[in-house]
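Per your request, structure below.
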């Protein structure tokens, strides 16, 4: 659109992560040096974090461009993956045709490929961008991948790049083993005012065909104040400023034009509106709480509450609420690790309770079935006891012999087919004939000589 008007090869403030436009600020130089050191020394995990739009992806592009041919790069951009999907994505990027769909098969194929790469003298580098989206199981799976090693070195080098909440996840007690393996870690801060001016004019020089367009310090200071030193927001504002200057046929950009750009971007929703109470965070790293000197209590003059009008108190409360809404996060970041750990413990407890409930339901079902069988068996025994005389339960042979009855006329006329043979006279065979009761000496003789003789006790 405006490239020919300003004599530019291309748009200097495009949002694509082009390493040709990487401005070597102090933070970016240090981050790049940390990355190269971690890869060349084959250290443990390398972790690089930074705010949204701070240039992490552009930094990675510059790093990967400078690697030699002895490095095989596996880069993951979409990190909303489960552990098994993470392994599949790594094997696919390495060009591995999996021999199976199970996790052991994927790990075996991956291990074989890593050994082949090491035998060929190549290093496998796994770069995971947007690593803050990984869940705790996926991070633990990545830690297990680092166990693939030889006696001298690792078979795979892992670099994690993400937003600041990645550090909060790594600080959880469940990831203590992973945190201990991190040997290189760096946080990429926002640009300060001097670096913002140099960043803007550096990109204009890189895209210029002739004499480059230069923005004055008063203009770049306004851009830095509005963008808070975030390179992506600087690109959005400067690209819109060039469009405005081209539409009004201006060869330069002044603070008045930049004010119109801010108003337009806020009205269209590209930039969030900024209020008078909003404070701009510094570009440098925040000072730790322990390093900040305590404020003397005696030096603070007490403010009488009664002297403040109701209108001022209400306006101050509204301003404080608006400031917290703009500047502060929704939750206190200091308690985020504790909240995440508490939620994981609650989920584990709920799963344990649900599993115990299922066990109790199964035990109740088994007891109910056993009670039903007991009742049926008890009823059957009662029925047999009522039918048989003297409470005796007939044996199968006796029952078969006693049925059908013998005194029926139909039975006498036509016996049933395949009926079992009936005894001649059951009444005559019971009770058995009485025998003489053996004497005492007869019993002693039988006991000594071992001659078994049936003894029929006299019932009289």
């Amino acid at each position: 659109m405006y490239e020919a008007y300003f004599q530019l090869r291309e748009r200097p403030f495009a949002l694509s992560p082009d390493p040709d436009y990487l401005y070597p600020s102090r933070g970016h130089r240090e981050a790049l040096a940390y990355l190269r050191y971690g890869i060349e020394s084959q250290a443990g995990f390398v972790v690089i974090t930074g705010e949204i739009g701070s240039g992490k992806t552009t930094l990675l592009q510059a790093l990967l461009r400078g690697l030699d041919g002895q490095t095989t790069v596996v880069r993951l951009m979409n990190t909303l993956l489960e552990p098994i999907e993470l392994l599949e994505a790594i094997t696919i990027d390495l060009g591995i045709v999996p021999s199976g769909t199970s996790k052991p098969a994927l790990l075996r194929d991956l291990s074989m490929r890593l050994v082949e790469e090491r035998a060929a003298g190549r290093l496998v580098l796994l770069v995971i961008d947007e690593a803050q989206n990984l869940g705790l199981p996926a991070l633990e799976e990545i830690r297990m991948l680092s166990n693939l090693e030889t006696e001298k070195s690792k078979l795979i080098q892992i670099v994690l790049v993400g937003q600041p909440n990645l550090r909060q996840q790594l600080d959880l007690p469940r990831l203590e083993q992973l945190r201990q393996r991190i040997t290189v870690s760096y946080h990429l801060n926002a640009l300060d005012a001097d670096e913002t001016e140099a960043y803007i004019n550096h990109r204009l020089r890189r895209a210029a065909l002739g004499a480059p367009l230069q923005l004055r310090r008063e203009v770049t200071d306004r851009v830095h104040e509005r963008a808070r030193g975030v390179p992506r927001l600087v690109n959005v504002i400067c690209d819109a400023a060039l469009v405005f200057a081209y539409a009004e046929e201006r060869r330069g950009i002044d603070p008045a034009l930049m004010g119109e750009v801010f108003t337009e971007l806020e009205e269209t929703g590209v930039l969030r509106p900024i209020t008078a109470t909003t404070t701009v965070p510094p570009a440098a790293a925040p000072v730790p709480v322990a390093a900040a000197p305590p404020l003397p209590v005696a030096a603070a003059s007490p403010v009488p509450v009664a002297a403040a009008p109701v209108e001022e108190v209400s306006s101050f409360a509204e301003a404080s609420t608006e400031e917290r809404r703009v500047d502060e996060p929704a939750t206190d970041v200091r308690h985020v690790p504790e909240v995440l750990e508490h939620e994981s413990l609650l989920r584990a407890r709920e799963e344990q309770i649900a599993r115990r409930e299922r066990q109790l339901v199964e035990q109740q079902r088994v007891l109910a079935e056993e009670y039903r069988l007991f009742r049926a068996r008890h009823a059957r025994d009662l029925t047999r006891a009522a039918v048989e005389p003297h409470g005796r339960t007939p044996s199968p042979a006796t029952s078969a012999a006693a049925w059908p009855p013998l005194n029926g006329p139909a039975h006498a006329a036509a016996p049933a087919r395949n009926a079992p043979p009936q005894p001649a006279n059951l009444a005559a065979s019971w009770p058995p004939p009485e025998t003489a009761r053996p004497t005492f000496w007869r019993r002693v003789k039988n006991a000594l000589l071992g001659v078994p003789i049936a003894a029929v006790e006299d019932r009289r």
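The beta strands are 45-50, 71-76, 123-128, 156-162, 182-188.

Regards,
D.
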